[in-house]
Amino acid sequence: MNINSDNLVSISEANQNFSKVARLVDEKGTAIILKNNAPRYVLLDYSLFHKNAIADDVDVNAAAERILKKHIKAFEELAK
Q1: Which pLDDT tens digit goes with each residue over 30-61?
Q2: Which overall architecture, per CATH, does domain 1-44 show?
């Protein structure tokens, strides 16, 4: 994930003015909340979360196939 410096908000500012942070998310899609000047939390638009959180069957099948090919000898040994 790339972090845009325009999306950075301190935790104290987020605590005191959450509506400002919510507007930032509405405009930019995400906000990064800093704690002790380091990125700590990500607030993102639910539609982006939902879109990125659900892997479709093709992605899952492709990942399974890659793992199987990479470790085929181990799987064959386990099958004995």
Answers
A1: 999 999 999 999 998 888 877 766 666 667 78
A2: 3-Layer(aba) Sandwich (3.40)
